[in-house]
Amino acid sequence: MNFELRRTTGLLITFFAGILDSKSQYFTYANAGQCHPCILRGNAISELPISGSAIGFASNIMYAEQGVQLQSGDVITLYTDGLIEFTENDKPVKLAPREVFAGIPYSPDYHRQLLTRALELSRSRDFTDDVSILSARLL
Fold it and tell me: CA 34, CA 30: separation in Å to the nearest integer?
Protein backbone atom coordinates (compact mmCIF):
# COMPACT_ATOMS: atom_id res chain seq x y z
CA MET A 1 0.00 0.00 0.00
CA ASN A 2 1.66 3.23 -1.16
CA PHE A 3 -0.14 6.52 -1.38
CA GLU A 4 0.70 9.29 -3.78
CA LEU A 5 -1.21 12.55 -3.93
CA ARG A 6 -0.60 15.29 -6.47
CA ARG A 7 -1.51 18.97 -6.55
CA THR A 8 -2.31 19.29 -2.86
CA THR A 9 -0.54 22.64 -2.29
CA GLY A 10 -2.82 25.07 -0.46
CA LEU A 11 -4.67 22.28 1.27
CA LEU A 12 -3.52 20.83 4.59
CA ILE A 13 -5.00 17.56 5.83
CA THR A 14 -3.84 14.95 8.30
CA PHE A 15 -4.81 11.40 7.44
CA PHE A 16 -4.34 7.83 8.62
CA ALA A 17 -5.13 4.70 6.60
CA GLY A 18 -4.90 1.15 7.80
CA ILE A 19 -5.84 -2.35 6.71
CA LEU A 20 -6.24 -5.16 9.21
CA ASP A 21 -6.00 -8.71 7.90
CA SER A 22 -8.37 -10.35 10.37
CA LYS A 23 -7.04 -13.83 9.65
CA SER A 24 -3.35 -13.13 10.22
CA GLN A 25 -4.00 -10.14 12.55
CA TYR A 26 -1.42 -8.14 10.61
CA PHE A 27 -2.08 -4.39 10.47
CA THR A 28 -0.62 -2.40 7.55
CA TYR A 29 -0.84 1.39 7.72
CA ALA A 30 0.39 4.76 6.49
CA ASN A 31 0.26 7.98 8.44
CA ALA A 32 0.11 11.52 7.07
CA GLY A 33 0.57 13.74 10.09
CA GLN A 34 -1.84 12.09 12.52
CA CYS A 35 -0.87 11.24 16.09
CA HIS A 36 0.82 7.86 16.42
CA PRO A 37 -1.87 5.29 17.26
CA CYS A 38 -1.35 3.35 20.48
CA ILE A 39 -1.52 -0.38 21.02
CA LEU A 40 -2.54 -1.69 24.42
CA ARG A 41 -1.28 -5.24 24.95
CA GLY A 42 -2.06 -6.38 28.48
CA ASN A 43 -0.66 -3.53 30.60
CA ALA A 44 1.95 -2.45 28.01
CA ILE A 45 1.48 0.59 25.78
CA SER A 46 3.31 1.08 22.48
CA GLU A 47 2.98 3.62 19.69
CA LEU A 48 2.95 2.82 15.98
CA PRO A 49 6.24 4.41 14.96
CA ILE A 50 5.89 5.81 11.45
CA SER A 51 4.48 9.13 10.36
CA GLY A 52 4.71 11.31 7.27
CA SER A 53 3.97 14.98 6.89
CA ALA A 54 0.41 16.20 6.54
CA ILE A 55 -1.07 16.20 3.07
CA GLY A 56 -0.45 19.56 1.45
CA PHE A 57 3.08 20.39 2.61
CA ALA A 58 4.44 19.42 -0.80
CA SER A 59 2.95 19.16 -4.27
CA ASN A 60 4.03 15.50 -4.59
CA ILE A 61 4.66 13.20 -1.68
CA MET A 62 4.86 9.46 -1.05
CA TYR A 63 3.74 7.86 2.19
CA ALA A 64 5.64 4.78 3.32
CA GLU A 65 3.68 1.89 4.67
CA GLN A 66 4.50 0.14 7.89
CA GLY A 67 3.10 -2.98 9.47
CA VAL A 68 2.71 -4.54 12.86
CA GLN A 69 1.74 -8.01 14.00
CA LEU A 70 -1.14 -7.79 16.44
CA GLN A 71 -2.38 -10.44 18.87
CA SER A 72 -5.76 -11.48 20.21
CA GLY A 73 -6.73 -9.11 23.00
CA ASP A 74 -4.71 -6.16 21.63
CA VAL A 75 -6.47 -2.82 21.55
CA ILE A 76 -5.47 -0.34 18.85
CA THR A 77 -6.50 3.27 19.47
CA LEU A 78 -6.38 6.14 17.00
CA TYR A 79 -6.94 9.68 18.26
CA THR A 80 -6.63 13.28 17.17
CA ASP A 81 -4.18 15.76 18.67
CA GLY A 82 -6.97 17.42 20.66
CA LEU A 83 -6.61 14.60 23.20
CA ILE A 84 -3.00 15.47 24.06
CA GLU A 85 -2.56 19.15 23.10
CA PHE A 86 -3.94 21.98 25.21
CA THR A 87 -3.53 25.72 25.53
CA GLU A 88 -2.76 27.09 28.98
CA ASN A 89 -2.32 30.85 29.41
CA ASP A 90 -1.91 31.18 25.63
CA LYS A 91 0.96 28.64 25.70
CA PRO A 92 0.80 25.18 24.13
CA VAL A 93 0.93 22.18 26.46
CA LYS A 94 1.50 18.69 25.03
CA LEU A 95 0.92 15.51 27.01
CA ALA A 96 2.88 12.32 26.42
CA PRO A 97 0.47 9.74 24.97
CA ARG A 98 1.90 7.04 27.24
CA GLU A 99 0.85 9.11 30.28
CA VAL A 100 -2.70 9.38 29.00
CA PHE A 101 -3.03 5.68 28.11
CA ALA A 102 -1.09 4.15 31.03
CA GLY A 103 -3.11 2.02 33.43
CA ILE A 104 -6.44 2.36 31.65
CA PRO A 105 -7.81 -1.10 30.82
CA TYR A 106 -10.06 -1.58 27.82
CA SER A 107 -13.70 -1.46 28.90
CA PRO A 108 -17.04 -0.10 27.68
CA ASP A 109 -16.09 3.34 29.05
CA TYR A 110 -12.48 3.25 27.74
CA HIS A 111 -12.85 6.46 25.71
CA ARG A 112 -14.42 8.36 28.62
CA GLN A 113 -11.54 7.25 30.86
CA LEU A 114 -8.99 8.51 28.30
CA LEU A 115 -10.78 11.87 28.09
CA THR A 116 -10.92 12.17 31.87
CA ARG A 117 -7.23 11.25 32.27
CA ALA A 118 -6.16 13.81 29.62
CA LEU A 119 -8.09 16.57 31.38
CA GLU A 120 -6.64 15.58 34.75
CA LEU A 121 -3.07 15.54 33.43
CA SER A 122 -3.49 18.87 31.64
CA ARG A 123 -5.24 20.44 34.65
CA SER A 124 -7.84 21.74 32.24
CA ARG A 125 -11.59 21.93 32.59
CA ASP A 126 -12.21 21.32 28.91
CA PHE A 127 -10.46 20.49 25.67
CA THR A 128 -9.17 23.38 23.55
CA ASP A 129 -9.40 21.44 20.26
CA ASP A 130 -11.72 18.81 18.84
CA VAL A 131 -11.08 15.26 20.03
CA SER A 132 -11.84 12.06 18.16
CA ILE A 133 -11.00 8.59 19.46
CA LEU A 134 -11.44 5.30 17.61
CA SER A 135 -10.45 1.98 19.13
CA ALA A 136 -10.77 -1.67 18.24
CA ARG A 137 -10.05 -4.79 20.25
CA LEU A 138 -8.92 -7.93 18.45
CA LEU A 139 -10.74 -11.06 19.46
Answer: 10
Phi-psi region of 108 (alpha: psi -120 to 50; beta: other; left: phi over 0): alpha
Quote the pTM value: 0.85
Domain residue limits, the chain: 3-137
Distance CA 84, CA 80 (A): 8
**CATH 3.30.1490.10, domain 3-137, yes or no:** no
135 by Cβ neighbours in 10 Å (0-12 / 13-18 / 19+) ranks as: middle
- Report how far apart, in Å, the C-alpha atoms of 127 and of each of 10, 65, 82, 123 are: 28, 31, 7, 10
43 has pLDDT over 60: yes
Task: Answer with the residue of higher pLDDT: 119 or 93.
Answer: 119
Please tell me whether residue 80 adopts helix, strand or coil conformation: coil
pLDDT at 34: 92
